[in-house]
Each structure stands twice: as structure tokens, then as C-alpha cells.
Design goal:
The chain is an alpha/beta fold and about 210 residues long. The protein is about 25% helix and about 20% strand. Strands 7-4-6-5-10-11 form a six-stranded mixed sheet. A five-stranded mixed sheet has the order 1-9-2-3-8, with helices on one face.
């Protein structure tokens, strides 16, 4: 058992030295707890299969359940997916960055374990300043799954982290108590028309209104 290092980070103006330290750990296959717009997330490189497997192990997560990926720009989306459907672009223009996760067919660059062996990947453009800074510093997409043991609730504060999570990660970025916004709305854009998998912060009628133009 070991205690992870905890570094304070300003949620609106994060210290870049701290962000670069966290990014270096992620690029080397480490796990970092970081703040998002809703709960604390558990981040590692989305392209590192061994690191992704570590996320599943630490969360005690069912291997058939996919893990969300965070990107910092639309340029990071292309390598992750097989195609970007026309209607998905309409949703991105309306709601990104924000609380919308879009599910695409995953490219061969994505470890199959990250997709839960479904061949699909959920992607969101980060909108929390610290999270966005972290993904930018890493230089490629990271996992954005909540920093909790599967079956437990998400953590709004570092003090709520399960001791197992605290002991297994390499670094914790503490931005204080998060506002605890609703989870993102999840839309599967591999279907035609796209299907709403989970209604969250963005209501279903808002999604339908955009899709219907």
C-alpha cells in the first residue's frame, strides 16, 4: 500500500508545471486523478493498452464496459474513429466543448479493451480548464472515466476517493470540491439516426432539435 502524491491545482488557472508533471506520468503509462466538470476522473493514455488495463484493474471495472475518452481539440478526434458522420458534426457544433459524449466506431489505434471489446468508443471534448490543460499537455487523448471503484458513486472531492484508488494511482490533482454537474448525455452516432444512450446534462429534446435541424 502506498499513498499517492496530491498536488493542489487551481480549477480556473492551473499551474502549468503541475500540469506538465501529471502529463509526463500519463505519457509514461501512469494513472492520474484529475478534476472534470462533474466528478474527479481517472486519466491515462488512451493509446497505451497496458495502462488502460490498469485503469480497469484499479476501478475493478467489468472488462465489457467501455471507458470514455477525453480530447482537447477536434484534431485529436480523427485518429480515434473510423468515420465522423454528418449528424455527429452537427451535434459537435452545438454542444462541444460540453457535457456531450459521442459514441463512434473506434479506429485500430484504440486498444480493444478500452472499447469493452465492442469496437465503439465514447469521446468528449473536455470543457473543464484543468482537464483541458492536462489533455493538451499530454498531446493526445486520455481516459476520462470517473475515479471511483465500479458500483460506487463519483467523487466531488479528493477526500471522497476510495482508499484503493488513492493507493493505486501515481498522482492526484486536487481542485477542491467540484460543482457536481450531471453526467454527460451519451449519443451513439454509429446509428442512423443517432440514438440517445443516456440522458444527462443535455436533455433529449435538445439533442433531437439539433438532429432535426
Amino acid at each position: 500500500m502506498r499513498g499517492s502524491e496530491i498536488l493542489s491545482v487551481d480549477p480556473t488557472s492551473p499551474d502549468q508545471h503541475t500540469i506538465r508533471k501529471a502529463a509526463a506520468l500519463i505519457k509514461n503509462g501512469g494513472l492520474v486523478v484529475f478534476p472534470t466538470s462533474s466528478f474527479y476522473g481517472l486519466g491515462t493514455s488512451a493509446f497505451n493498452a497496458e495502462a488502460v488495463d490498469k485503469v480497469f484493474r484499479v476501478k475493478k471495472r467489468d472488462s465489457k464496459k467501455p471507458i470514455l475518452v477525453l480530447i482537447a481539440s477536434l484534431a485529436q478526434l480523427d485518429p480515434l474513429v473510423e468515420a465522423i458522420p454528418r449528424l455527429s458534426r452537427r451535434l459537435m457544433e452545438a454542444f462541444w466543448p460540453g457535457s456531450l459524449t459521442l459514441v463512434f466506431h473506434a479506429s485500430a489505434l484504440i486498444p480493444s479493451s478500452l472499447t469493452g471489446y465492442t469496437g465503439k468508443v465514447g469521446i468528449r471534448l473536455a470543457n473543464h480548464v484543468a482537464a483541458l490543460s492536462l489533455v493538451r499537455a499530454v498531446g493526445h487523448p486520455i481516459t476520462g472515466t470517473s475515479a471511483n471503484v465500479s458500483g460506487q458513486g463519483g467523487c466531488h472531492a479528493v477526500s471522497q476517493l476510495d482508499v484503493h484508488i488513492r493507493d493505486e494511482v501515481d498522482l492526484i490533482l486536487d481542485a477542491g470540491t467540484l460543482p457536481g454537474a450531471k453526467e454527460s448525455t451519451v449519443v451513439d452516432v454509429t446509428a442512423d439516426p443517432p440514438g440517445i444512450i443516456r440522458e444527462g446534462a443535455i436533455q433529449a429534446e435538445e439533442i433531437r432539435a439539433v438532429l432535426e435541424g
